[in-house]
Amino acid sequence: MDCLFAIGLQARMLIEEARNNVAACIGAASRDIIFTSGGSESNNWVIYSAVENYEASCISRSESGETYRKPHIVTTTVEHDSVSAPLQALENKGKADITKVPINKTIGEIVPSDVVAAIQPNTCLVTIMMANNETGTIMPIQEISSAVRRIENKLSSSIMIHTDAAQAIGKIPVNVNELGVDCLTLAGHKFYGPRIGALYVKNLNNKTFHPFILGGGQENGWRAGTENTPMIVGLGKAAALVRDYLNDYTVAMEDSRDYLEIKMAEIFGNKNITFNCKSPNKLPNTCNVSILGKGLEGYKVVKNAKGFCCSTGSACHSGNCEPSKILLSFHVGKDVARNAIRISTGRHTNRKQIDSLVMELRKVVDDLKTTVEKE
Questions:
Q1: Cβ atoms within 10 A of the Cβ of 182, count?
Q2: What order of strands is seen across the sheet that includes strand 340-344?
Q3: What percent of the chain has pLDDT over 70?
Q4: Catalytic pick from 25, 58, 183, 316?
């Protein structure tokens, strides 16, 4: 028994060390970090907890004679499916009203004033991603939080502010205090960690957040289930590396991404390509580009690329690939969006690799053009 106790204590110490590392990575208190299975669980948890908290507050308000109104949630048109899908499910079941704020066509971002304009007296949650996974666009979360707090004071109501920072961590600085958010989602595999996640909840024990999985009382009662110690430790190590070397990572990724875009313009010509992130505020590693021309649909390029990996950001079935709804929401034209591919650079991507990528991409495009000419 003593041996088993010692092993268990060691596991507990490793988990808490990982929690401290994750917290330090985002400027949080370790007591406000919960380990989850990944970003999707974290996002779902925030949404359903916000609704549950609203429902609980309505019970007390109804006793004072107030008329019940469904919870209202503000989000955007470009969220990850792990946010948009549960919100759609709530709306379909008549359990919540959802307002999706569109991307401003001029600046290519979400505008804080548009978020404020969407807020209603029954708004219980504002959930907006920190950086878009397809275009790399960074949203002005700090400004949005400040604007929501000002309107919150006027309404004399409490609005939870959440950001899915899965794409941002490990690429740009992320500090929960500067952002002014109540909840923040992390996903380990997005910053060279294992496929596990974490959730930051400000002042976790203030009774406005609710457990998602009940059972054995793990994670201080917030999330039941035996902890996946090796994965948690790996997440903590990845977070510690981000804390210590973020600037080096950012510079390396930005250098290779910028070089990629320069080489793309050089090889294909500026008139034959379009970069689909229109905002100057973008992640250092993401290049979403469309190579213009008939027969150069993104899914065809992805299918024929052998020496490197890229994606289209949309689902293709039986050779019929519709353009990404996210890109369309960013006001990218349908034909341009249909030809889009997303290429991400990493911490160790070098210029020699970029040269090889662009040369292969040139060959893929030439082959596709030849096929079109023969048809």
A1: 25
A2: 273-275, 286-291, 340-344
A3: 94
A4: 316
